[in-house]
Amino acid sequence: MTEPVVEQIMANIRDRMEVAFDNVHRSTRIATWQPKDWSLHVYQQSLESAPDVSCPGNPPAQGWLLTAVVAGIVKPSDNETIAVDTFRNRMGAEIIAAATDADNWHSWGGLALNTTLGNVEPYIEETGGTSGVMVRFAITFRTDENDPYTVRI
Amino acid sequence: MGTTFDSHFASAGFPMLLDQFGESIVYLPNGGGPRKILAIIERNPPAIFDGAGNAVLPTATLRVYNSAQSGIASREVDIGVDEVEFLLKIGDSIPKRFSFMTLMSQDSGVTQLAVI
């Protein structure tokens, strides 16, 4: 089944992360994975219209801005003496290195116009049991206005 | 320092509850051998919310003896790396392995842990 371009991009992000990480997950309705140390959670936020990259035509090309998030989970032993920030810094760097480790990395296999790196934000889950970093990617792409399955470069 | 209630519940109350409601699980301490113990399992408890407002749902909560022999001692458990195996759904035949999420309480001879 052909997937919408936005889904193809998200799948591409996961695939690229799997080259560098053993445990890369996307959410399912019921979680089937554990937030173990050095595992990744790939998910997306809102898909916004990006009129500045839209183009007239027949059909017009609709521009989109996708915020993709790669969350790296840091869950070392309770006895670990290295600072959690150190693990977070390493995790954030490894995620960026993995994402950019491809020719024209920003296009995600020819699907996107451009990708820029966003914030690298630390997080601590409320119970303190899990923490990590969230690396945001701002991805612009275009599709046919009447066909979100077809890329328009 | 435990109270009189703590010691009574640990010696009489919790063993009775464990006898009635306990299920066999396997505790897998990091670097140690597996330990077969009894636990009261609460499956699919309410979601815990993280700082960003996202639901972080523990798979279950476990109540076990606060003991390094017949349960899980709160002083020994390593939330970061220890694991546990149990049947997630009643009727499952193959246990699944889970990580710990947090140590919820350690009073009255009972160690309560959220797992995910």
Walk me through the structure.
With 153 residues, chain A is α+β, with helices and mostly antiparallel strands. Chain A has one domain: STM4215-like (2-Layer Sandwich). Chain A is built from two helices and six strands. In chain A, strands 1, 2, 3, 4, 5 and 6 form a six-stranded mixed sheet that branches. In chain A, a hairpin with a 6-residue loop joins strand 4 and strand 5. The model of chain A has no long low-confidence stretch (mean pLDDT 91). With 116 residues, chain B is α+β, with helices and mostly antiparallel strands. Chain B has one domain. In chain B, strand 7 and strand 8 form a beta hairpin. The longest helix of chain B has 18 residues. At the A-B interface, loops of A face strand 3 and strand 7 of B.
Pairing-aware structural class of the strands and helices of chain A? alpha+beta
Total number of helices of chain A = 2
How many alpha or pi helices of chain B? 1
> Ends of chain B: how far apart?
30 Å
CATH domain class of chain A? Alpha Beta
Helicity of chain B, in percent?
10-25%
The low-confidence parts of chain B are: none
How many beta-strand segments of chain A?
A: 6
Biggest pleated sheet of chain B: 6 strands, antiparallel, barrel
Structurally, the number of domains of chain B stands at 1
Question: Do you know the CATH architecture of chain A?
Answer: 2-Layer Sandwich
- The count of β-strands of chain B is 8
Q: Oligomeric state of the chains?
A: heterodimer
Q: Extract low-pLDDT stretches of chain A.
A: none
Structural class of chain B: alpha+beta
Order of helices and strands of chain A: HEEEHEEE
Whole-number average pLDDT of chain A? Answer: 91
Main beta sheet of chain A: strand number and arrangement? 6 strands, mixed
